Structures are given as C-alpha cells and as structure tokens.
Amino acid sequence: MKLRYICSTFVLIYALTGAARAEGVDTPPPAFLDASDKVDLWMDRPMSSAAMAGHITVKLGSTTDAVSRIEAIDDAGQPTAAPSRRIQLTLARPVTSSQIAGAMSAEFGDAPARPIVARDVLSEPAYFYSKSDLGAAYTPSKTTFKVWSPVASAAQVLIFKSAKGEVARRIPMIRGAAGVWKAAVAGDLNEVYYQYRFTSYGVERATPDIYGHAASADLKRSMVIDLRRTDPAEWSSNAGPRLGKATDAVVYEMHVRDFTVNPASGVPANLRGKYLGVTTPRTHLPNDSAPTGLAYLKMLGVTHVQILPFQGINPEHAGGYNWGYETDLFNVPEPRYATNPGNPAQVIREIKAMVAGLQQEKIGVVMDVVYNHTVPVSGDASPFWATVPYYYFRTNFQGDLLNESGVGNAMDDERPMVRKFVTDSLLYWMREYKIDGFRFDLLGMFAPETVRAISARLHQVRPDVLLYGEPWTGGGPTRFGKGAQRGLGVAVFNDNFRNTLRGDLNGDRAGFALGGDASFDSLRTAMTGSPEFTNSPQESINYVSIHDDMSYWDKVVKTLPVADLTTQKNAIKFAGAIVLLSQGVPILEGGVEMGRTKSGVANSYNRGDDINQFDWTHGAQFADVSNYYKKLIAIRRAHPAFRCASAEDVQRTLAFLPESAVPAQTIAFTLDGVPRSDNWRKTLVIFHGALTPSQITLPPGAWKIAVDGEHANPNGVKVSSVSMPLEPLSAYVLYEDGH
C-alpha cells in the first residue's frame, strides 16, 4: 500500500496535532484512564512528582478520589525523579464500571479542570463482551439492536423515515454487562434506516453502526436488513474451490471497475465496471471470439481472484475513482459498483451474485481488506470515534493519533474489543458472502497475537481459508514482519522474491528477470519458498508486480527501452514463468499477461479509467503471452512437484544443479516427482536471465521439453541433443515420463 491520500488537509491536521486538538490547537489534551486505578496526564511543561504532590485532585462525579501516588514518567515509560511532561497518577480506589460513564476530571493548581477519558482501562476484562450479537439482529417480528459503548452515559436508536428523511422514532437503549447497550423494536424493520446517538463526555454524537450490515449510499445511516432476502438462487449450496494446501492456489489480482469498464470488455454498458460485470457470461472482444471478463479468467485457469477493497469506502471520495484503501464501514459493501447504489439490499445481492458467478466457475474470491486504519481518520465523522472516543485508534501518551499507516491513523488491534471487531468482521464476510480468503493491507501494523487469533478463528470455521498480507507498515513500527507468520497458517508478500526478480520498483534498475545480476543464493532461496523467513512455501506469496507501483509491462519498457517488442514480451513471459514455477503461492498482477499499461503511473489509486482500465483490445495483441501463462498455470496445477506444502517436501523434491554446471545468469533445478505422486517422474527447470543467448549441457535423461522461452506445450517434445541453446530471458521445463 502507498501513501494514497495524505494530501487531505483533514489528515494532515490530525497527523500533526492530534484529534484532541484538531478544533483548538491550544486546548490541552484530556487526561486518560489507562487502568482502573491509573490516570495519565500530559503537562504543558516538565514537572516533578514532588512539585505536584498535594496540588492535584481527581473527581469522579461529585466525589473527590484520593491520589495515592504521583510519578513522572520518562521517554522509556519508566518512573523518574527528573521532571517530565508525562505524569501518572495512582488512585486510592479503582474506578468502577458504573463510574466510568460519569463525569471524571483532573485538576492541578489553578489550571482549568481537564476531563478524564477512558482509554486502555476499557481493555480490562470487565469491559470485554464475548458474544457475537452486536449490531442489528433482524427478525420479521422485531429487531434487536446492540452496541458496545462503555463510556456512554445514555444511548438511543434513531429510526429514520428514509435515507435523508427526518427522525421518525427515538428508542432509548438499556445499558447491560460490559457496557453493551440494547434495545428491541417491535415490527418488521427490514430496509429501515437507523443510527445510534450516544451521550459521552458531555457530548451527543449520532453515528452509523460500526457492526451494521447495510447503509445509505453516503454511509451516514445504517439500514436494518433481512439478509436472507439478499441471497441468490441456490446460494446455500454455492461454494468456491477447496484447497488441499495454499500452494494449490494461483491468485489473480483485479479491481471491480478496472476489469470491465472498457467497452471492448463485451459487457453490456449498464454493467461495465460493476459487480455484475465481473461475472457477465460469455463475453468476448467485438467482432472476435477472444474471451474477456469471466470467460477470460476461466480460460486462463486461475484458482482465485483477489479483488481490491469493496468494503464501504470513505463517502467523501464517493464521486471519483478510488482503489478503496480508505474504509469507513467494514461490514457494509461499497455501493459505487452496484447498478443501483441507492438500494443497499440490491448492493448486497449483486456482490453475492458476483461471488456466486465466480465460484460456479470454480474461481474463489480473496477479499482485499484494510483493517489497519479507517477514513475519516477520527473525530465525530468517524463512526469508531463517535462510538467510543479514543479507543479504536493508537494514540500516544498525550492522545495524538499515531500515523503508523502513513495516512493519518492506526487501528489499535492490541485492544481486545478492537481485535474482536476485526475478527467478527472477517467471520461475517466469510459466512455471509462466502469469501474464500483475505489479503491484509499493511498487516505489518498488527500485533502477532491478533494475527494468530484471526487465523485460528477463521481456520476453525473453514480449514482451507486463504490468508495473507503485507508484512510492512506505512511508516510506523513493524509488529508483524517477515518471519512473524511462521506456523500461523498465514502467508506474507515476499518482497525478497520480487526485488530479486524485478530490481527496483519504478526505476530502470534490472533484476534477474530483466537481465540484471542476482546471486545464486538469493535466487535459490526465492525459488524454494524463502526458508530464511518461512516455515514452508505456503507462507510465501511470490510476485513480481501488484497494483502498487508501475505495472510490470511499464517496468519492462522502462528497463529495456531499446529492446524490440518480441524481447519485451519474452520478458513478461520469463517473469511469469519464475512466479508460476517456483515453490510458494503465486499471485499475478491483473493484466500482466496482457501487457497492461498504466502509462508509467506508479501510484494510480485515483487516476481514473484512462490509466487503470483493462484495455482488452490492447490485450489481444498479447494473446501469445496470455496463452503462455495459461499453459504455465495448467502445468503448475497438473504437477504437484511445483506445489510442495512443507520445507521437508521441498528438500525431498527439489535439487539445484551446481552453479558450475550452468551458464552465467542462469539457475536450474530438478524436481523429483516420485514423492509427490507426479506423473512426470523427473522435471528439469532452467531460468536463463541474461540478455544474450547461451547454451547448457543437460543432465543425463530421456528429456521432453514442455516449456521454452516462447511456447508452452504440456505434452512435450522429445529432446534429441544433450546440449540445448538458451535464448535471452527464457524459461525451460523438461521432464521424464513416469511410465
């Protein structure tokens, strides 16, 4: 993920000054209740504990609570005798759950009283709600609303006449255990709009439901929905492909709008760029039989599509093109790709129809999700902030938002109810929409304990769910880097693999796949699932390009500007061969095999259709490349030796030819098909990464060649010589029959 929208003045204000002072820069931050008996203060100047003794009081409602200890805290978070702006108070009596929603304040000398805000105290067991019934639970006779807001002193459900209409009813909610508010409303409320109104810290805030399943097109109001009325025909029996292991997957990345918005997609005009356009059947180029859209995916043979985010996107950007990495409501589907964005039920129906259409062709759906941050960043415009101010986001000692995502804020997944929200949301999409897997944006921001909890819970429901993410952040500390995923049933994007093959991201420095130098060791580890940071190849997502940065075609043209078209096409084939024939989980940038260009634009998140669309007519000129990828995918899927599940399997199966036995800028390995029950008894794979031709002496064997630099033929052609020429930037697959 890139820094996609930090130009926003709103984001800059919050990133630099903190949410607490966005409206008044000189307003001191509140004090924070970070444990039931601990209050943290950020002073306007360094103070010592001795100087503050006897001059500070804490009030809970009308009661003054005794302060038993005052400590100055240093930058390492430890008590210090030296003056500090960080002060921690220990209360004589813990604040109870019944007091936490009342008025709390801290007073020091003659300074104005500062409100005390409940922050990390809400992570204590007394405030954890374990049930899975938050949100609006619909039945024809009544709807039950539940919402977690321990800091609210009062809460209401607001029922509206329409998406923009006035309030029709105000229903008081009753506070229950752990700070969960509840109200049951009689009658059939299907497709009725609602909000919650909270009174907390003396302020009233109206907001949509963070657990809501549907919302108005502007995401300002939630909607009660009978989800069973949104199910397509035979939805209950619908299922995507089942994976024996993660390395059985071949993933193809796409964006809903990009995929079919071009008229040459063959999709009817009213469905282009829409959910239903993705699965329009039997589409092809005008006046040509070449398949497009769903038919093309089926022809290509991929097992899964990874779809860029389609959870509810920041409504402030609803009118323009956007990749979607700025989620507002995580359980609400994005309406802009529906044929009728103003009908929330229809939006849900069309997403389910898209998922069903893909799965009926045995193509699973991986959902790209962005739980690391939200947009709007915070303040009352954020449903999370309005529900429980300060709790859902990471803040520093004084309450400023931490800009770990690079775009203004960071979800604090180490807090139990935040971790629960993320897990509940993922389970909802997996169960309600039959999502087959999740790709996590900036997973490096998350705590390992969160990833472990997510993986355990989702695998419990579906053992073959595909989970992977980016093991880096947007500039903040990396908590879940490469290696943290070991043994968790989660894979990470392998930028070691990418950088070795591609070179730099947007410059003209060539990696191995573009004629550049690469060490034998770096190639060997990349092609065996990167055991330097994985327990198995199932934990490595292998790729050379993705939506971020220049498309691979643009990178090829920039790196090899004087090469002819054939050489440039061969460079695309070569990179694809390495991705698809290495051990690990391959993912393909959507359109890489079609020579998809973004006109050299790297960060095209808001650059519109001209830059981002799949140009199917242009793609027809790359039919030879697409056909090459198709056959490589078929070979990978047909031969288990390419899809080892464990490091031990790789060791038993794969052996590299000595560096002395291959030409310069060449690497080769054999695969033993016997342990994998592969009908190719032995396979020889050769990658020649030089820009000049060479030749290799083949190991002894009755070899047939299935893949060369330009063609792929799974049936193979017998090789008659022990010496074989190697063309520039070319891959070769030879095999011996197992018969």
Give a quick summary of the entry.
It is built from 17 helices and 36 strands. With 739 residues, the chain is an alpha+beta fold.
Q: Name the beta content range.
A: 25-35%
Tell me, what's the shape? Answer: globular
Mean pLDDT value? 94
The main β sheet shows up as:
9 strands, mixed
Distance between the termini: 48 Å
Structural class: alpha+beta
Topology of helices and strands:
Blueprint: H1 9-17, E1 31-35, E2 38-47, H2 49-52, E3 56-60, E4 63-65, E5 67-73, E6 79-80, E7 84-91, E8 104-108, E9 114-118, E10 135-138, E11 142-148, E12 154-160, E13 167-172, E14 174-175, E15 180-186, E16 193-200, E17 203-207, E18 222-223, E19 251-254, H3 256-260, H4 275-278, H5 293-300, E20 304-307, E21 311-313, E22 327-333, H6 344-360, E23 364-369, H7 383-387, H8 416-432, E24 437-440, H9 448-461, E25 466-469, E26 491-493, H10 495-502, H11 520-527, E27 540-542, H12 552-559, H13 565-581, E28 585-588, H14 608-612, H15 616-620, H16 623-638, H17 647-653, E29 654-656, E30 666-672, E31 680-688, E32 694-697, E33 704-707, E34 712-718, E35 723-726, E36 730-737
Helix pairs in contact: 8-9, 10-11, 13-16
